Amino acid sequence: TTPAKATTTYQIGTDVTFPPFEFANKQNKYVGIDMDLMRAIAKDQGFKVNIKPVGFNAAVQAVQSGQLDGVIAGMSITKEREATFDFSKPYFTSGVVMAVQPKGSVTKLSQLRGKKVAVKTGTSGADYAKSIQKKYGFKIVTFDDSNNMYEDVMTGNSAACFEDSPVMQYGIKQGTKLKIVTKPAESGSYGFAVQKGKNQKLLKLFNKGLADLKANGTYDKITQKYLGTTK
Ligand code: GLN
């Protein structure tokens, strides 16, 4: 008899709550586009994953320091990050939008002067806020997850937040009491990331699996399951 091939289990970091990409369902299982893709890719390529919902910034840092093997968390592929991470092929397009109270008086960037803006630590939304902060003269308050960031705007402490457009759109559809008032800025793509120069085998498996899922219709099935649309 041939000895059973040992299956590698990779430790994958993700955000705590970033629907429709990763969130806990009623059974407290992590689901969403990223989670379903990651599991389907693992199945397709014959490896196992252990999902660690540690939060976006923590997941990014844990991969950077080699404590986790990879991160899938609606993570934008950026020039800056490419200095420390190797990214998979892009798998979803996104951009940063500004969201405010639906009936509030602030609807433009130019109305943020002297006000607070909520962002999530370590995100491209936070970087975007920093890049326009001088021009628009607002203060920045940071949160570790999206829910607390939204809450700060809903309670009126912050005048606006910057969030990824597909996530903000989905959240509003699901009942988050906010309104999007800008077109997506800093548009780019999400990628799966590993530490630069490390875990190249995992990266290859991810890319191969992603290509298979795109070819056999699973990618479309997963995105349609959460977004209900054909792209
Ligand atoms: N796409 C954004 C980034 O990469 C936000 C990711 C997230 O909040 N999970 O920074």
Automatic annotation (TrEMBL):
Taxonomically, the superkingdom here is Bacteria
Cellular localisation: Cell membrane
- Family that this chain belongs to: Belongs to the binding-protein-dependent transport system permease family.
Q: What is this protein called?
A: Glutamate ABC superfamily ATP binding cassette transporter, membrane protein
